[in-house]
């Protein structure tokens, strides 16, 4: 830092190594108001917060390891599901691709970009479609964890004005941003940089909104659920740290992976201090001060992220090295540890039980039915919609099999059906059912900052159940095809398998919903109880520490045991409320006593085989299938490389240009009710008459999306190739690896690509991406 003036520290920039450092640049910048001492103070403050949190994390790691090993030994797992689940996820698929306009903050211009969303849900932006096909490095990779989608400038300007008091623009003054169309999409984050996009039509805006919302939903769920030690240890440490600051209740910024969440945690404390100190020193018009504050906040966010990443990875590495020794102690002394913990729990229970029961009876129990009903209505409607969408898609496919040549096109239809759960537009009607979720009058009482955490969790369950139903259907149908059925037999088998899968779905969805209701009720009520009991109970907890043997102190914590006792006091009321809802047959919940034991003993054995490749097995070839033939000399690896070049799970089905209103192609009216669909299926199976116009949507051929028109008044014209399938653009026989890059594990947005040649693009290594910066 030698030679740096206090006034010319500008912003944090990413080098090719991916590390953040301070750069000096002359001229007017947001950092002209910041002093070098301010930056050092922020780093020191960040270091103190991280050190305090990481002490909680180290404590929770031993507890989580013990709980995980105890769970494995005792085998108290959930009942076996009826539906199968994919052991090999649908990787190497492109969820969505298309053009959109992005606002460039460096030159204040709107530029046409080709956007692509791969299976890992990181939005990748290329200069244009031709750049993508030529494998030019992307302009940006955006990880959307923690972001919100705004569809109007008024919403955005209100949030920006609230984030920096005293900067609300007066009427008649130029806002911080002007959108050239009426259809903007803005990605807003409370601390990191913002992203501005716009479309030419409302239909395009709706489509991109659904896709980006799916990206946010997926990226927010960044901690792997199969992490049985690191994941629970981290989330428990977050909760314990915030409770030590007297922050109870749900936290809206528990979004992304561990480093992102830890960065949000630091910014929650650092942000208000930074705002109070720097906001009065920002100069210029209100919109200029808003712009400066956004840039300053983003720069500090990047600094905190790099610091948090280094510290967290160092501690995690240390704990993983110590893990084998800890496991050896747990295996040797498991019985003694359990006995010691139960003794501690009995002493704590005797102390707090009278107070906790009174608190539950007076402040929690009367509200459990109301909270449960508020959760049940939208959630059950969403799962019912999942069932209806699945039924409709399979029935449409069956009708297409009848009218389009039977098994010859089955591979094409099943390839599309297999990706149904990851189709943002077809799943949108299911996700929308959760939007009305409200806890009116209860949010303030129980300190629930937002219901978004419950909405997104339910939506993730919906997607999982849809994929499980689809995969089970795929597996059973694949087994049936081994018998060589005729077209008539195949259609009857599809209908029979569909009804079989729906019964399994009804059982599993009931189980998933009941578990979701129990978890949500605990997540709402437990923090409230802990806050109520803290003044009289928390100060007395240290005296129980002497009951823990020193050798077991890493695996038993007084605070965790105390919370388990509190949980037990309210758990019986929650279980009873959910049980009564099932007994009353509310929202199609099954009773707990209704268990499907080994109803399909051989089904789970089918899932042990290799993943089904419908395109390879049933796509047909040459003239018989009507699809482009593959040269016999092509190797299997070449075929797989070509398979990576799927244009999109979401197909544009409009006949006109994306930015022009045009009539939709004629299509047969789709019956709405289950009775109509079954009747139509039976009638077509007997008559085998062709449909009046083209295949139904599930069998519709992929249409090419035309090139977007440029905005001449606000954006420089750029060459862009037509949005045709890459399979049609690349000469036959030329193997091109278009494996999409994995988004950076940062919330801050864009990533600089190495301009000197194309580096290898990773899809599985989180740490391969650096800090994103502006272009």
Automatic annotation (TrEMBL):
Question: Which residue windows does the record flag with biased composition (Polar residues)?
Answer: 762-775
What does the sequence similarity comment in the record state about its family?
A: Belongs to the Niban family.
Q: Does the keyword Secreted apply?
A: no
Q: Which residues form the PH domain?
A: 93-217
Question: Where is it located?
Answer: Cell junction, Adherens junction; Cytoplasm, Cytosol; Membrane
- Keywords, comma-separated and alphabetical: Cell junction, Cytoplasm, Lipoprotein, Membrane, Myristate, Phosphoprotein
Species of origin: Equus caballus
Domain of life of the native organism: Eukaryota
Q: Which GO terms describe its cellular component?
A: adherens junction; cytosol; membrane
Classification via SMART domains: PH
Protein name, please?
Answer: Protein Niban 2
Keyword hit for Transcription: no
InterPro entries, per database record? Niban-like, Niban_1/2/3_dom, PH-like_dom_sf, PH_domain
Compositionally biased region (Low complexity): 617-632, 713-726
UniProt biased composition (Basic and acidic residues): 736-745
Membrane-related topology note = Lipid-anchor
In terms of one coarse class, where is the protein primarily found?
Answer: other
Which residue intervals make up region (Disordered)? 616-775
């Amino acid at each position: 830092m030698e030679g740096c003036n206090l006034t010319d520290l500008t912003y944090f920039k990413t080098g090719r190594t991916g590390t953040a450092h301070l750069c000096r640049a002359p001229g007017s910048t947001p950092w002209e108001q910041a002093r070098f001492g301010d930056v050092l103070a922020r780093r020191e403050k960040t270091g103190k917060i991280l050190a305090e949190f990481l002490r909680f994390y180290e404590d929770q790691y031993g507890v989580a390891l013990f709980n995980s090993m105890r769970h494995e030994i005792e085998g108290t797992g959930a009942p076996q599901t009826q539906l199968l689940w994919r052991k090999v996820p649908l990787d190497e698929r492109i969820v969505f691709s298309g053009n959109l306009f992005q606002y460039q903050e460096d030159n204040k211009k709107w530029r046409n970009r080709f956007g692509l969303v791969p299976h890992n849900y990181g939005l990748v932006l290329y200069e244009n479609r031709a750049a993508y096909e030529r494998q030019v490095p992307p302009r940006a990779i955006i990880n959307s964890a923690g972001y919100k989608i705004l569809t109007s400038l008024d919403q955005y300007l209100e949030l920006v004005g609230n984030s920096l008091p005293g900067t609300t623009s007066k009427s008649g003054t130029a806002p911080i941003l002007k959108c050239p169309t009426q259809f903007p999409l803005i990605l807003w984050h409370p601390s990191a940089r913002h992203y501005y996009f716009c479309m030419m039509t409302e239909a395009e805006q709706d489509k991109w909104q659904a896709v980006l919302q799916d990206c946010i939903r997926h990226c927010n769920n960044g901690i792997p659920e199969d992490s049985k030690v690191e994941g629970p240890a981290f989330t428990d440490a977050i909760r314990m740290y915030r409770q030590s600051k007297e922050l109870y209740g749900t936290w809206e910024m528990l979004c992304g992976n561990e480093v992102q969440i830890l960065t949000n945690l630091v910014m929650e404390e650092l942000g208000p201090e930074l705002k109070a100190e720097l906001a009065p020193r920002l100069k210029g018009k209100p919109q200029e001060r808003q712009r400066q504050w956004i840039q300053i906040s983003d720069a500090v966010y990047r600094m905190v992220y790099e610091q948090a990443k280094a510290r967290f990875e160092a501690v995690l590495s240390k704990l993983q090295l110590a893990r084998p020794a800890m496991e050896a102690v747990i295996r040797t002394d498991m019985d003694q540890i359990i006995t010691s913990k139960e003794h501690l729990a009995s002493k704590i229970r005797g102390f707090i039980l009278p107070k906790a029961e009174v608190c539950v009876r007076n402040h929690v129990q009367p509200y459990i039915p109301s909270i449960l009903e508020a959760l049940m209505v939208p959630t059950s409607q969403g799962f019912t919609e999942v069932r209806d969408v699945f039924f409709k898609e399979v029935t449409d496919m069956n009708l297409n099999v009848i009218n389009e040549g039977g098994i010859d096109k089955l591979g094409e239809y099943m390839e599309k059906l297999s990706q149904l759960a990851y189709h943002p537009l077809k799943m949108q009607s299911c996700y929308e059912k959760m939007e009305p979720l409200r806890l009116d009058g209860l949010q303030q009482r129980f300190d629930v900052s937002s219901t978004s955490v419950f909405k997104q969790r339910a939506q993730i369950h919906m997607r999982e159940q849809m994929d499980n139903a689809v995969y089970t259907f795929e597996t059973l149908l694949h087994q049936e095809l081994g018998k060589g059925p005729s077209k008539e037999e195949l259609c009857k088998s599809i209908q029979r398998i569909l009804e079989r899968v729906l019964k399994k779905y009804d059982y599993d969805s009931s189980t998933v919903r009941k578990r979701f209701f129990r978890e949500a009720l605990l997540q709402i009520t437990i923090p409230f109880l802990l806050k109520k009991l803290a003044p009289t109970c928390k100060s007395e907890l240290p005296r129980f520490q002497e009951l823990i043997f020193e050798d077991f102190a890493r695996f038993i914590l007084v605070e965790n045991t105390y919370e388990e006792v509190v949980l037990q006091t309210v758990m019986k009321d929650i279980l009873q409320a959910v049980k009564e809802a099932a007994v009353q047959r509310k929202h199609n919940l099954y009773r707990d006593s209704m268990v499907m034991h080994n109803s399909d003993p051989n089904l789970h054995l089918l899932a042990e085989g290799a993943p089904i490749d419908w395109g390879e097995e049933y796509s047909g070839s040459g003239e018989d299938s009507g699809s482009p033939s593959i040269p016999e000399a092509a190797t299997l690896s070449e075929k797989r490389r070509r398979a990576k070049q799927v244009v999109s799970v979401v197909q544009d089905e409009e006949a006109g240009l994306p930015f022009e209103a045009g009539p939709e192609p004629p299509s047969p009216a789709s019956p709405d009710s289950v009775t109509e669909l079954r009747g139509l299926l039976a009638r077509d199976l007997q008559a085998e008459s062709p449909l009046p116009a083209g295949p139904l949507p599930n069998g519709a051929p992929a249409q090419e999306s035309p090139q977007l028109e440029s905005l001449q008044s606000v954006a420089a014209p750029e060459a862009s190739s037509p949005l045709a399938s890459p399979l049609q653009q690349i000469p036959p026989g030329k193997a091109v690896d278009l494996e999409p890059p994995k988004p950076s594990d940062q919330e801050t947005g864009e990533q600089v690509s190495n301009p000197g040649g194309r580096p290898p693009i990773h899809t599985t290594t989180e740490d391969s991406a650096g800090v994103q910066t502006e272009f």
